[in-house]
Amino acid sequence: MAAALHVPTDPRLHLLFDVLAWASGGLLARFLYKWRLRDAAERVAARAGRLYVAALVVGVVAGAWGFGSLNTGLTAIPHPSHSIAGALAGGIIAVELYKLARGITGSTGTMWVGPLALGIAIGRLGCFFAGLPDETFGTPTALPWAVDLGDGVPRHPVQLYESLAMLAFLAIYLAALARRAAWTGERAFYLFILVYAAQRFVWEFWKPYPRLLGPLDLFQLLALFMIAYALIYDARARRRG
């Protein structure tokens, strides 16, 4: 087994990075609103109604803890947990049901794209530096960039894979937004979900989570759901556009 870079970890660091993720996401949302997205945000607010945010919050919280706890409930010692993949899936389901009930068409997620990408990127750093107790560590590997999170085992830094993937998407998104690319309008949220779910699907093969369907774990099944959602709704947005 190859030598690995030893990473000092502390579970308490997770909260620090969570706060940084929320704060940076909020600041980016404010910047994007003033810079490019004011009109889009006001159109969404006008047609979505006051209960839109409530539906979103309920879906995000229920999805985060429901799917997260379902995954850790399959382990040797079942316990509650939360997950960003579950939060996204729950938010999507809640909002789309709300839109269906209200007769709302089109995307309402444009304002969330940048903040979500940045928040996930920073939040995953918290998962990484929280170490093994966070339960998001990777499987053993002999790759030269393997990390040792305190147990002497060289592992895939899967949290960093996801963080870098989200930062790469954010860079492309901001560059496209600067030149007012057409896809940064109605299609932006669907393309974000597509990228997030596709990269998450890949990294899950390098995590020691319980498998539910053949080689696939719960979060890979959620990722497939989100990929299908993104492709279908993006196709609808392109037809409307």
Describe the overall structure.
The chain is mainly α and 241 residues long. The protein has one domain. The chain has helices at 13-48, 51-72, 84-102, 113-130, 158-178, 188-203, 218-240, and strands at residues 5-6, 147-148, 154-155, 211-213, 216-217. The strands form 2 sheets. Strands 1-2-3 form a 3-stranded mixed beta sheet, with no helix packed on it. Strands 4-5 form a two-stranded antiparallel ribbon. Strand 2 (147-148) and strand 3 form a beta hairpin. The longest helix is centred in the first third of the chain and has 36 residues, at 13-48. The chain is globular. The model has no long low-confidence stretch (mean pLDDT 96).
Which descriptors would you attach to this protein?
241 residues, mainly alpha, 3-stranded mixed β-sheet, two-stranded antiparallel sheet, 7 helices, 5 strands, 64% helix, globular
- Percent helix, as a range, is 55-70%
Measured on Cα atoms, how large is the radius of gyration? 18 Å
Number of strands: 5
- Choose one word for the global shape: globular
